[in-house]
Design goal:
2 copies of one chain form a homodimer.
Chain A lengths: L2 H12 L10 H17 L3 E5 L6 E5 L8 E7 L19 E3 L2 E3 L7 H18 L5 E7 L9 H7 L8 E4 L11 E6 L1 E10 L5 E2 L10 H9 L23 H8 L5 H9 L12 H6 L3 E10 L8 E2 L2 E10 L5 H14 L6 E10 L2 E2 L5 H14 L4 E4 L5 H10 L2 E4 L15 E3 H19 L1
Parallel strand pairs in A: 3-6, 3-7, 7-17, 8-16
Antiparallel strand pairs in A: 1-2, 2-6, 4-5, 5-18, 8-15, 9-13, 9-14, 10-12, 11-13
Helix pairs in contact in A: 1-3, 3-12, 4-11, 10-12
């Protein structure tokens, strides 16, 4: 790998382009300008598009008819680096140690999108052009929910018309194992509040004669699942598409030991999930109902003998094909209302939701990507789903009408979003090869 | 009432003498010093007795042989004021509105013990002495279980030998209705913590395969009761003594409408309690299992898609004759352990506990108190039990061999332990008269 690659990667990483905190806004903009300048320097036509938030960098080659059009998406913004004291070196002063680059954004997403940029650079240097029509969209708001990307896609729907979208912002199932993520779970949020008396009450003076909202909430939350981890909300699973046999079989053969790895990573005393499904199936293909937070009454030190006035819980549901987030939330609301204990009232507030995603890795483009990844890594491709949500892939489908291939380069121990985030140079190099191979294969 | 009474009462209330939270320790001590100074100022011999926790104020007149000896007990510590936003005026800046004084501790117990102090002051000013030998014990740990009072009583068993104990830390059944509480519930505390993973986890990446401690806690708490409000812990009711007929009948005739009053006072949408018992029976003679507080995961604004690492609940149990707090807690622990969901661990920490109390209101001193209260209020005395706990009355019985007469001055809407705690000046005045009448009657 050329020395200049690492120098430029480090420059990219030094911008503290934290999108969630207004105090970094100038750094975010400076980072966008640097990215745009880099893309212009490799002969792409590049511009910075203003949004109501942070700007989007949009670069393209000269499109010629008769060629396939590929959109590559990435983001140049990063998560906040806190807590700083957990970092072994400053988060915005990248260092190379034993083949790993440590910095905030090293993996998520600067390292991954930069490997694509370097791949494009090499192809252009070799051939003076790319084998496909290319649009490169690198946004600055992924870590804050991509609030302005949808409008950008809608406003430029025609110019951004493409055959397929490539995104490297997901994980590899194991080191040196090329991975296509063809499915994601969606998410839906619901906040519930149970209220009894109008104020906290003395549990001696009133206890026994007035309902306890914390107990009532617990009682209600306990009805969400049965003892085997199945969600007990009537109708919840009605629209869940069963796993295909090839997925079930393929996942069993992946070169990982998911149970051992998850136990080690989480430190949980044991794994627990829905009976009848493996760990990977539970995360990748089964919906969940999770309590993300709950609270009520006195949580400070010592004892306070109150009957709380109210108690609340924040719930999210991971949804899978072919569930609809709004339908699921309505079912849950009906169920909770039905299981409300006497003597309290219930308020429910629906939060944000995003759909699941599923594409066919055996489609024409999926197969092309598989061939390319096999070539770049010299290893068979792992076909996986992921348990998280990437709302923008649905935007690409709904607004641009294009499927997305998620060909991520992150490893499980890259510590995205955490202290000591890192990216192996080996993956940067693999990404450069992957970009070239994928564009070649997609060109047909 | 003299102006100085109100001024001094306000000074007393301004001390944030919150005993449960270490950060108030200096204020607690300052409050004790002020109380001791006040007692010295009315010619009692007063001193501050150190304990391993907060200090005890101990004052007395010169004891003379041939007189009855009376011990008056109260406490100068208060409950925490949270949640602060519910107070109409700051909890430690007392205000007088329409005859009611609003402040934390206004009723519980500063207002009540202060009315005794003022009664003593008037008698001493009038007669240069009291009609009885008096010990006045005002402690600083009532709200945290009076952990050090027992040792104090034991250490001073001989000096504190007395015929009867007076405590005004309970309620009046209705305004202007003198009330003797002859029974109390006990209390036992248990804190439980459920732990899954060692850190909060991303609910997309891990959700479904790792247990959710908040959900596990809810599931466990839901097993404490059945749908009819009965406690579902096996053996919980085994030692509960049935109500006497005279109590059941007497309570029906009390000059109150408990259901209507409780609904109005609490603003609860409906009453709820154990099937088969009236509201008064539920509070005064039946045990409870209450969630005083619970928490886990993200409780801030918006959504955070985490699987919490842990969740906790603070429980207390009100116990009644002839239950034993330690037995009850052991039964609950066994029950919770048995109902622990898979994939999480459970820690249980037993907190303070205090026994129930039951005395005979028709004893010699009980009858004397009835006569005095009838004189002070010009109305027949209501004989009731209370739902709260005053563990120290058992200490008085067990250590000093003395029965306690609970002659409280709190009204149902005084909001002890809640925001906007208040005390009517009318009750402060009644307390002054009551103190004088009771000491006179007990003198015989």
């Amino acid at each position: 790998m050329r020395d200049t690659y690492l120098e430029e990667y480090f420059i990219f990483l030094r911008f503290p382009s934290v999108s969630t905190d207004e105090k970094y806004a100038d750094n975010v903009r400076a980072c966008a300008e640097w990215v745009s300048g880099k893309l212009a320097a490799i002969s792409l036509e590049s511009k910075i598009v203003r949004t109501r938030g942070h700007p989007i960098v949009w670069a393209r080659n000269k499109h010629r008819s008769g060629r396939r059009t590929v959109l590559i998406y990435g983001h140049y913004d990063v998560q906040p680096p806190d807590p700083l004291e957990l970092w072994d070196s400053p988060p915005f002063e990248p260092v190379l140690k034993n083949g790993y680059v440590f910095a905030r954004g090293a993996t998520d997403n600067k390292g991954q999108i930069f490997s694509h940029i370097l791949g494009l650079q090499e192809t252009i240097e070799k051939n003076s052009d790319l084998p496909v029509n290319l649009d490169l969209i690198i946004e600055g708001e992924e870590e804050v929910g991509s609030q302005n990307l949808g409008k950008f896609l809608t406003d430029n729907r025609d110019a951004l018309k493409c055959d397929v979208v490539l995104v490297s912002d997901t994980g590899m199932i194991a080191p040196r194992t090329p991975t296509i993520s063809y499915g994601l779970r969606g998410v839906a949020a619901l906040e519930i509040k149970v209220t009894g008396a109008q104020m906290d009450l003395h549990s001696g003076i009133f206890g026994g004669a007035v309902a306890n909202p914390a107990a009532a909430l617990a009682r209600m939350l306990a009805t969400l699942h049965d003892a085997n981890g199945h969600i007990a909300v009537p109708g919840f699973y009605d629209d869940v598409a069963p796993l295909q046999d090839w997925e079930r079989e393929g996942w069993k053969k992946l070169p990982i030991d998911p149970d051992a790895e998850m136990l080690k990573e989480t430190g949980a005393p044991a794994l627990f999930g829905e009976e009848g499904y493996s760990t990977l199936e539970r995360i990748w293909a089964r919906p969940t109902a999770e309590v993300n937070g709950m609270g009520g009454g006195y949580q400070g030190p010592g004892t306070k003998t109150v009957l709380p006035s109210h108690a609340m819980a924040k719930l999210t549901f991971r949804v899978v094909p072919n569930q609809r987030a709004d339908v699921v939330v309505d079912l849950v609301k009906e169920h909770l209302q039905k299981n409300l204990a006497p003597g309290v009232t219930l308020e429910m507030t629906t939060g944000h939701h995003g759909p699941w995603y599923l594409t066919d890795p055996h489609s024409k483009f999926g197969k092309a990507a598989q061939r390319a990844l096999k070539k770049a890594f010299n290893k068979d491709v792992a076909l996986i789903r992921e348990g998280g949500s990437i709302p923008i892939v649905s935007d690409f489908r709904n607004i641009l009408g294009a499927e997305t291939l998620l060909i991520g380069l992150a490893l499980a121990n890259c510590r995205a979003h955490s202290a000591n985030e890192n990216f192996p140079l080996e993956n940067l190099e693999a990404g450069i090869r992957m970009n070239q191979a994928v564009l070649q294969e997609l060109a047909g």
